[in-house]
Protein 1
Amino acid sequence: MVDGSTHFTYAQFGARVASLAQYLLKNGLDTGAHIAVLAPNCHEYMEIYYACAMLGVVSIPLNFRLQADEITAILIDSEACALFFHEDFREIGESALNKVPAIKKGVFIGAKAASKMQSKCTIDGYEDALKSCEHAEMPARTFESDHLAHLYYTSGTTGKPKGVMLTHLNVASNALGCVAEFQFDEQTVWGHFAPVFHLADAWSLFAVTWGGGKHVFTPYFKAPAVLDAIAREGVTATVLVPTMVNQILGDPQLATYDINSLKLLTTAGSPIAPEQVKRVMKELKCDYLQFYGLTETSPFLTIGVIKKHLQDLPEDQLIQLKSRTGRPFISVTVKVVDDQGQEVLHDDKQVGEIIALGPNVTQGYWKQPDLSAQAIVDGWFHTGDLACVDKEGYINIVDRKKDMIITGGENVFSTEVEYALYEHNAVQECAVFGIPDEKWGEIVAAVVVLKPGVKVTDSELMTHVRQKLASYKVPRSVEFVKELPKTGSGKIFKKGLREKHWSSTGRQVN
């Protein structure tokens, strides 16, 4: 693994994990204990994941973009009894240690002295902790496959954050499926550029290791740092969310980096427009693959692998296919069903909800049995995502239930409008949603970020969309902003954009 100037072999990594595991045991943190982590991407993060897994300790990755009070609330709800925190988040870490009574141990990741911090509990430096158990044997622990491994708190795009419970079976079955689907081996060099506190990338910490590949970390996503890491370490594959792809493609120095090692760029987190897929393949000169899933499914549900008998299709058709959500992931049963629970026709027209059954599906939400029962019915997880299915079995998401716009009695799926906007050469990023309207109930609204140095009017964008879609799908409101708000995982925070329009209505539909 490579983290800046730090390089470890798997043997060295294993020795560090053993030392960390023994340190946890020495401090009373054994099977069933809950440990939270507040850090950017780094080799220490991976070591913590693995040390916890070896002991049956539950790891709780924290979104470092949250405010201190939100972090504290999660720590209390998750029953964390220890906190590993990075020097970049020292103030939040110290605050949490003093506000959460259940936390008895803090571990500080960084070069500064941990002893100078003010806390009600003891704080050890990370490297000091490992040295105190140097040359330790890897602890031997046995527990059932349904033992809790991780608690991931959802980003909040659909409401109050929930602790998603993932078991060892969930995580391991997902990782093994990824080895098969991606063909990970010792030639794989994976770039951890999306945050490892989120399952957009965290799954690869386990899957790439299982295949014997190389891990390359950058602490935060910044296009120049990512491009430099790809060129320097020969990164062959990575995952980004579409907003990150936009930044890579928009980097003014892109052409100066030697990124020929990159063979595969994958995206997850939100749908991607065909025009963006075309740019990835043309400008980055690599293959593109989309996958879809949720935190609740560890995360894979579908993957955009092109079936062999379709690989000779014309380029435009292949790009359209690659832009779809994909076919079911290995070992997972995925269906798209109507309101009566019947599978929709594979006609690429009828829309239904995606539901899933498999070994990677969560047991539910931490301490929220009612929400768990609503989401998981007879073992089937109901995603809340709306999609259609083509004759080849490829699923294509059209929206979340809550994001569907009903204007004048007509349904409008926001992604369809976003795709049309992305085809305009002035649009860098966009988000489409419904806002209340006295006449139509709801109207289509768009918030747009333009490419640097490019100008366009709202009427020009409306005309552009009108040329591609039915008139009722055309945005009646276009707002230009410099930047769109993002969730911790890098998704566009559409809920935040909608709220100001709906706050006075007392409800979210009209």
Protein 2
Amino acid sequence: MNLPVKYLLGLLLLPLLLAACGKSEDVFRQESFVFGTRVEVSIHVEDAAKAETAMRAVLRRFDELHRKLHAWQPSELERLNAAFAAGARTAIDPELAAILEDAREHSLQSGELFNPAIGNLIRLWGFHADLPQTAVPDGEKIAAAVRAAPSMRDVHVENGMAWSDNPAVRIDLGGYAKGYALDEAAAILKRHGVRNALVNIGGNVLALGTRGEQPWKVGIQHPRKSGVIATLELGDGEAIGTSGDYQRYFEAGGRRYCHLIDPRTGGPAGGMQSVTVLVSGDRAGTRSDVLSKPLFIGGPQALAEAVAQAGLDHVLAVSADGSVLVTQALPKRLHWSEPRQAFTTLKTVR
């Protein structure tokens, strides 16, 4: 499938900056296309046969998750959404049950700015499709979808069954699934004895170990220019995720409408161009994916408070006016593309 430029930019969100990219003697790499985006797995080769076996296992798992969690093609998630809309209870497998519970917890912690229950709003805006629409939806339809107040609070899971109190709930895990898949990939690679790897799912990246004697390096895409705004090195178990208005969007009337919907207004969030978070520790992949969303939707005025509430030390944001905002701990790890890059340090209080 040929994707338009607006989509390809999203796929290049965090390009890998590997020395001697391409035909590299010390890195075994394979690409695929799942979750509607490009996936790249890079393994620092110690044993080529082991690397290839691990790679196949990771890509098989990605295909499984694609079939389970896709938001608008036939999937386990779509079957669940149909049951919610009908007011029916339905059986779900333990993995999907755990995902829903975890997504609910993240949603509540974010004050519901991260809200996977607003799939109907996302569909109304045309982002439940491989290609975006080009027209703004009817205002009353947007208002009605907001009044329906879909929330993860409405979702219940018990004894292998799931149901919703609100038929307006339609689960979309677009802000969760890539990060979850990163954690799954890391677990699979470790089980296969792979200690050094980099997994990139459409710009959400997780590192294991190093690339030989050097750390893995990634770039943070500039939201308005070709190329990156900065690069940094990832340590073992660290993950980085970015939410940006240049990934999936359309333009109408001279205005950009991105796929990151503010559940409070029902419209695309407009205060940010991009937000990048760097996290480490348990389930770093999932958290890197989820935590960037409420920071983006909340906008620059609420950023410092939201960063502190999320317990994040490393955040880079570009506001709608192009101002660059960086947490105090991050600049020492960044290598700016522009040597005199101007930025404002976020003052956070915990």
Protein 3
Amino acid sequence: MQRWRGLEDIPQDWGRSVVTIGSYDGVHRGHQLIIGRAVERARELGVPSVVVTFDPHPSEVVRPGSHPPLLAPHHRRAELMAELGVDAVLILPFTTEFSKLAPADFIVKVLVDKLHAKLVIEGPNFRFGHKAAGNVQLLTELGDTYDYRVEVIDLRVRGEAGGGEPFSSTLTRRLVAEGDVAGAAEILGRPHRVEGIVVRGAQRGRELGFPTANVETLPHTAIPADGVYAGWLHVDGEAMPAAISVGTNPQFDGTERTVEAYAIDRVGLDLYGLHVAVDFLAYVRGMLKFDSIDDLLVAMAADVKRCSELISAYDRG
């Protein structure tokens, strides 16, 4: 899969293509419907498929300080898109100048002059151009002028997690923030993941017999609510069952919120300085302060046992 950063990276001899545009944070099941349809139609038409997305998130430029928590960094989104069969991903630097493009100018600059769109696939709520003035209706009307067609994909949720709401990154972020990682996974189509570098912490876990990887998460990461979770710690392509703690470590009067993962039944791991990923499978309990260290140790042992059970049940199908 080709990856382009900015319009200037697009090959000059690029021909017609099937295009879909959006932030696509999380590449959730709604996004997968749109992107999958773009890939399908591109193959039918004998042209490549292109996903256009933005960095930073448009809201940060339009309303500074409003950057939403991110469900997936751009490299992870690209990996997920590649798995769906996408031929190219274009990341457009979203600047103040770019945000001021009128809808028609946006279409000409991106879809017509550079990507030579033959077909555009979007969800019903797609907006584009200055002040998000462009919508699917305008996109379709401009297609008559610039020789491309538009298909709109319905994104309604029919599972329990959405309660009838459309698939959306906003809904997924809310579930993650509430600690409902199972509900988020139902929308994402996989467990929610956070990534970062393993850094040195207070090393209390090691002293207590449960050494954890203290993950310095990427900026703007959507981090689940404080608590204990079952999941996996991914290191160099290996997925290790893990008990995960999110919070300020109230037992020791901590103030900084951290994500720490204990690789169950693994000893001698040296992960400092490595980039790792943590997948959240299930919520186990809230973050508590115990009466004594002994009570904490009993709870931690029970947490690890429960996490192992949940992970084993998931692995069995």
Protein 4
Amino acid sequence: MSTKLLFIGHLWPEPTSSAAGYRTLALLKALSGHYQLHFASAAEQSVYCADLDSLNIKSHPISLNDSSFDRFIRDLKPDLVFYDRFITEEQFSPRVNEHCPDALSILDTQDLHFLRRARQLALNKKQPLNLYTEDAVREIAAVLRCDLSLIISIYEMQLLISDFNISPELLHYCPFMFDTATLKPDKLPSFEERKHFAMIGNFLHPPNWDAVQWSYQAIWPAIRKALPDTELHIYGAYESDKVRQLHQPEKGFIIQGRAKDAVESLSHYRVNLAPLRFGAGIKGKIADGFMAQTPCVSTPIGQEGMAEYLPWGGLLSDNSNDHQQIAEYAIELYHNKNLWIQSNKNAVNIIQKQFDYAEHSKNLIDRLHKLQTEITTHRNNNFYGRILRHNLYRSQYYMSKWIEEKNKA
């Protein structure tokens, strides 16, 4: 296992803080059995970072706009370089390409940031959706520059191919990966043993914070009126003062803070609420609920990329802005035992069919191995990507050098 793989993270992976952190760790686990794995990040580490040493992954703190990275990458000489999000690719790929031009470049998009931001802007400004933004230019340029981009949802794969004419040869479908053997259909609490509603999601993520506010203002009052003895328990990492101000037990609106184990926490609730009005990718909060066999009430945005052709594990509103329908569906799912049991079975089926770790990790490794053997032809077929790499090198690299000299001064 002499092939070296460097994973450059926008953040150090925090699997208990966000779905992005969980996804990164799952990718690292899938890769660690096949490559000599190194992880580097310019971010500060927190106490919630995953223990990479236990996975035999070497950690490296690095710096932005600093020639120390040049020395680092020259000494390491990786055969593959993963970039976590397009911003990281913009920041580090010019220096990687200068010193290791033959290294495979892989972009993990996490989700399409330009899609999420465009939807957020359309919601906030009450205007039609416009995908052709500066964010899209930057993110799709990164996709074209890289040899392969991991796309978390089939919807986003189709969007890139149909709306932006991206070659399927540059894309690889890689959703969340769960060990389906850990599902316990007969060992988790039953319908009668569960009570209350739950929400979960990192409070720093704009779609999650919007969902919390919308629930507080419109959805939860309608549910609470019909079910006065129920409570909504909201879990999430990095709660701020503005989040804590919504903690109102007298209204049944309870901020729980960080969940040590999302699946275990959700397994005690009867219904998982995910009233998402904008977003992209696939939703870790819903997948965790399905792993806990907790049916979900969500929106078309929440469902996107999750189930595809399979029956939903709960109920879905007709659009992503109908708070009354979401409340009605939440009440119905809470009361209707037969519906809840069927939704529970659907949730397990979605996890098994859509997010199986063994299947998707094997597909990823096979794709990487194939790409390594065909890289010359692959790059010749992506000449526009070569042009963009050249232009980024000339602009971003020299800007980075200028910032480095300015910082020294």
